Amino acid sequence: MSKPVKTIVIVGAGTMGSGIALTAAQSGIRAVQIDVNAAQLEKARGYHTKQIARLVEKQKMTADDAAATAARLEYAADFTAFKDAECVVEAASENPEVKKKLFRSFAETFAADALLATNTSSISITDIATAAGARASQVIGMHFFNPVPVMKLVEVIRGLATSDETVTRTLDLARTMGKTPVLANDRAGFVSNRVLMPLINEAFYAWMEGVAKPEDIDQIMVLGCNFPMGPLRLADFIGLDVCHDIMMVLYRELGDPKFFPCPMLRQLVTAGRLGNKTNLGVFEYPPRV
Ligand code: 3HC
What we know:
Mean pLDDT: 96
Shape: globular
Bound molecules: 3-hydroxybutanoyl-coenzyme A
Helix content: 40-55%
CATH class of the largest domain: Alpha Beta
CATH architecture of the largest domain: 3-Layer(aba) Sandwich
Radius of gyration: 19 Å
CATH topology of the largest domain: Rossmann fold
Number of helices: 11
């Protein structure tokens, strides 16, 4: 067993970041949730409190474990006060410049043997690692899936400069968090989104071409292929803007027009219909209380 991760810093308190923090805390790791946006940080805290209470309610967690899990969660606006953490996971917006700026700062802040992980869903790890300069060997992709506490996979992606030790320690960390890590190489979209996004895109084309109504496209895939949710509902769940951006990375990096987002998807994104988070995407969702 490699050097264990006792403290993990998660930068970005959105859906993915807050899920990663909760999962880490549940598995016994001190989890520091970082976001410059105070409202976002409060939202993450609310999500954690609610999820922990639900687990107790469902008798999946004892009251003592709930208290210990809550005590392992911390919230802050700035990560520089946590420079002794053995691991930082970046879960900020899917923008290469935002990520590179963070990794420049991670390289200056954290220890020479800390894991510098990114939860990017499609951006090149090798590219992000260039921002870490001499610390590029510590940079790795740790791609979690939504909802993080439920989904078993962590896609682990090594960049060109990632060291074997960084890979081994990341695999150990994912297992400690109760996940099954699977390695993928550093190509746009890795495996998961390279395969998933064309499927989602094709569902949009089927809708646009009138092959079936959206609810029927989904039902066919749920009942006929045993998908837990249909591809259009899944796109809403991921966020139509996120799907669009991932497809654009795939299209640009792999150069194949099959990855170019369907006009129907582009139109919904332009209209601000982004899926569950805006209560309207392909389908309509009741506002969450
Ligand atoms: N946080 C924590 N737990 C959650 C949760 C959340 N956000 N959402 C659901 N759960 C838990 C519920 O509490 C419930 O737990 P229980 O079995 O202990 O009671 C369990 O998950 C099942 O939830 P529900 O009964 O409410 O609903 P479903 O049975 O319909 O499951 C689902 C919901 C797990 C979301 C299921 O529909 C599913 O697996 N959908 C597909 C999800 C998927 O494909 N995710 C990957 C997206 S791609 C991605 O993330 C990569 C990125 O790069 C794009």
